[in-house]
Amino acid sequence: MSTAVIRVLIVDDKIELRQNIKRLISFEETMEVAGEASNGQEAIDEARKNHPDIIIMDINMPVMDGIQATQIISQEMPEISVILMSVEGERDLIRNAMKAGARDFLVKPFSTEELFEGIKNIYKQDQKRRQLYNAPTPGPGQEQTGRGRRDQGQIITFFSTKGGVGKTSMIANLAVTLTQFFDARVGILDCDLQFGDTAIMMNLYPSKTLANLVEEPPPWSGDLIAEYMMRHEESGVDVLLSPSRPEYAEIVQVEHVEQTLLLLKDKYDFVLVDTVPLFRNIELSILDVTDRIMIVVTLELSAIKDVKLCLDLMANLNYPDEKITLLLNKGYPEVGGLSRDDVQAGLKRDVSVIFPNNEKEILSSINRGKPFMMGEGAENTDIGEAYVKLAGLLSGRQSAASADANEGGGTRGGVGFLQKLFGSK
């Protein structure tokens, strides 16, 4: 079986360095030079024309620097992996490179071994992503696969900037709502790898978890993933649970999560993903492949402030506005003089669905291991209508029920503080 040849585009304003890298690659049988460029704009043009697998690109260049070029390439051509390089290796510079979409960072001068190892590792890690985006568009009557597949499911990731906002409970209840009232196939992936609570929420014993799955040798298949999904029999929801012990989280790597998500997307109409409030490599990789991000906020000034920072970061990551949905949990009655209007004014973004503060009922359902939406007539309650509305938004089907927001203005102390903090008008 022949080994795939990795096509590399070399970008640096120093012709001597480009020639040196070209010479090194010429001695490596598994790589070939797909082109070269002397600035970021030329790199974009070459990438559009030649579609390399990997771009090795300097940060400091004329016309357009490497970070700007990486942002454009990552958004327009996500199947191409970018490795940035620089003579500087400060933490802030590396962080900015990763935020722009770079998959790795090399500090000059680097050895031949470091160069080749970086290229090969990133090529291997991003193999599934390339398959997803490079899948050909089939002709009439042919089954569609990959990016263009019509019946492929949606990855819906729930994210928050702090714990305790009710995110995991929302996922369990949304999953039940989608299966019971919208006849959808739903899978949950619990990526709170150390302290995931989905098993508790749905009364499932973690006999099979993500940590067990990653011990399987590659390549993985949809049938293999199915063996590790646990069925919540009452609702029909399937769940891939987080590791049963915190120390097992270390064996789960970025490539494991990415491959799992792509396989689950082929199997389910909706893949609901639980995450932790961090921006590590695993969380960023999840958000990258996610179709819609549900950001959960509560009526607390600290939570609203953190969500504003989160939205700013996602804008820097070039996530489009339509990818992000804002959910307000425990949103009415008002808490501490804050209302939905205050949240929207502070974040300069509309709240799509508001969930009322039914803490007693939700806590009871959690302690029983039975999602609230499993109860008879749950869809006719205020919080049930909110879940039906959210499920309708995600499925594209109009729902009969909707979450009615409390329009109360509250005191102006809270929103006044937000205006000072964020410059709201």
Largest sheet: 8 strands, mixed
Number of helical elements: 17
Proportion in β-strands: 15-25%
State the separation between the terminal residues, measured CA to CA: 63 Å
The level 1 CATH classification of the largest domain is Alpha Beta
Morphology:
globular
Number of strands: 13
CATH homologous superfamily classification of the largest domain: P-loop containing nucleotide triphosphate hydrolases
Q: By helix and strand content, what is the structural category?
A: alpha/beta
Q: Round the Cα radius of gyration to an integer and report it.
A: 23 Å
Can you give a write-up of this model?
The chain has 425 residues and is of the alpha/beta class. The protein has two domains: 126 residues, Rossmann fold, CATH 3.40.50; 273 residues, Rossmann fold. Helices cover 42% and strands 15% of the residues. It is built from 17 helices and 13 strands. It has an eight-stranded mixed sheet with strand order 8-9-7-10-6-11-12-13, sandwiched between helices. Strands 2-1-3-4-5 form a five-stranded parallel sheet, with helices on both faces. The longest helix has 16 residues. The protein is globular, with a radius of gyration of 23 Å. 42% of the residues are buried. About 9% of the residues have low confidence.
